[in-house]
């Protein structure tokens, strides 16, 4: 998870406000989100799955399994 954390932190200042909220959620719950799906994250954060999907592409991170 350290590489993902470092990547999120390195992109953080360039992120859109919605993406920053997603990043904040991931950074504060690093180990619980490791096995989370995009749908699960969407339900917990309250954002659309598309927003989370865009976040992963923007941050060059592919850490979610899509079901």
Q: What would your notes on this structure say?
A:
The protein starts with a helix and ends in a 9-residue tail after the last helix. The mean pLDDT is 81. The chain contains four helices and no strands. The protein has helices spanning 2-11, 17-28, 38-45, 49-58. The radius of gyration is 11 Å and the shape is globular.
Essential attributes:
67 residues, mainly alpha, 4 helices, 60% helix, globular
Number of DSSP-assigned strands: 0
Cα gyration radius (Å): 11 Å
Low-confidence residue ranges: none
> How many separate helices?
4
Q: How far is the first residue's CA from the last residue's CA?
A: 21 Å
Query: Could you describe the largest sheet, including whether it forms a barrel?
Result: none
Q: What's the overall geometry?
A: globular
Helix fraction, binned, reads 55-70%
Assembly context of the chains: single chain
Structural class: mainly alpha
Q: Spell the H/E element sequence.
A: HHHH
Residues in β-strands, percent: under 5%
> Can you give the mean pLDDT?
81
């Amino acid at each position: 998870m350290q590489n993902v954390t470092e990547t999120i932190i390195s992109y953080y200042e360039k992120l859109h406000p919605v993406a920053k909220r997603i990043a904040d959620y991931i950074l504060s719950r690093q180990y619980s989100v490791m096995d989370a799906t995009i749908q699960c994250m969407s339900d917990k954060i309250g954002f659309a799955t598309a927003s989370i999907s865009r976040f992963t592409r923007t941050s060059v991170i592919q850490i979610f399994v899509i079901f």
